[in-house]
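#lab-general

N.A. 3:47 PM
ok so I finally got the sequence cleaned up, no stray characters, all 341 residues accounted for. can someone with queue access submit it? mine expired

B.Y. 3:52 PM
send it over

N.A. 3:53 PM
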Amino acid sequence: MNEKTTIYDIAKELNITAATVSRALNNNPKISQSTRQLVLETANRMNYKQNRLALALRSGKSNNVGVIVPRINTNFFASVIRGIEEALHPQGYQVIICQTHEDENREIENINTLLNAQVDGILMSISNLPKENNHYIERVIQKNIPLIFFDRKKEMENVSSVTIDDYQASYQTTQHLIEQGCERIAFFSGDRSLEIYEDRYRGYEKALLDNNIAINEDYIITIKSNVTEGRDAVEKLLALENPPNAIFSTSDFAALGAIQKLKERGIKIPEDFCVFGFGNEPFTKFMELSISSVDQSPLEMGKMTAQVFLDKINNVDNNKTGKTVVLMPKLFIRQSSTRIK
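B.Y. 4:20 PM
back already:
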C-alpha cells in the first residue's frame, strides 16, 4: 500500500466503521484491546501514517519539543542537545533544533516557527541581546507553553533555568592562576550584558581583590569566541607597558588563538605565561600543549533541562515561581596553566 492510506481504507479492510478505527488509533478506552491491536496491526501493514499536526490540534499535544541555541557547531551546545534528546526520546518526544546565530530576527523567527508547530515546550539558550527585548519570549509564556532556559538565561518571572555556577568557576580559575605565581592576569570576556559573562567577570574580580591584586582595566578585553580574536587580543596585551603573565579566557577558541600568538612571539607556556580556557572543548586535551579549561557539564545540563521540562508538563513540579538549577563547574587543570606540580 502507498503512504496515502486513510482510516477509511483501514475500516474497509476490517469491515468496521472509520470512527472505530479513529478511536482505536487514539487509544480511546471504549475500544477493546483486541480491536485496538487488530487496527494497529492493520494500519502498520497498510503503511498508514497519522497526520501529527492534525493529531496535535485535536489532542493539544504534539510530542515535539523545540530547542533554541546560538549555534550547534561547538561541543558544548552539541552535548547539551544530546543530553536533552537522551532524556526526552524514551518519553516519546522528538526534538526540533533551531539556531539563532546571535541574531535577534532569527531568534524571533525560531520562536514563532516553534509556536506554529504546536511544540509542547521550548528549551532555550538566549542569543546575545539587550535585556529589555523580552516581548517575543513572553509570547511563549502567554500561550502557557513550558519555557526553560539553559546556560544563557534571562531573569523572567515563573521561568525555570539550568545553569552552572559561572561565578564560582571564574573565582576558582583565577585563584588557581594566582597560586601558580601569576599576578598580572588578563581576562577575555564575552558581552557582559549576558548574565553568564557578568558572573564570570565578578568571580575573576573577587578572586583578585581577595588576594589584594588591583584590577587593571587594560587587562580586560571583550571578545567573540573565535581563534582570530584571541590572537588579536594578545597582540594588544603584549604591546602594553606592563603586559600580563596570564590569561583567563571565557572561550576555549580565544584561548587557543592566544596560545598560538604567544608561541609565535617565542613566549614559553606555562613557564613565562599561563593560559586557562572555558568550555572544555575536545581539542583542549588533545593539543601537544594541553589547555586548562572549565567544564560546563553539558550532557548533565541537557538531561537536567529535559527533566525540568518533564516535571513541569507532568505536574510533578508545582512551583509556580519557576525552578532554578545550578550545577557545579569542574576545572580541568592541564599543561597550559601548570607551573607548580
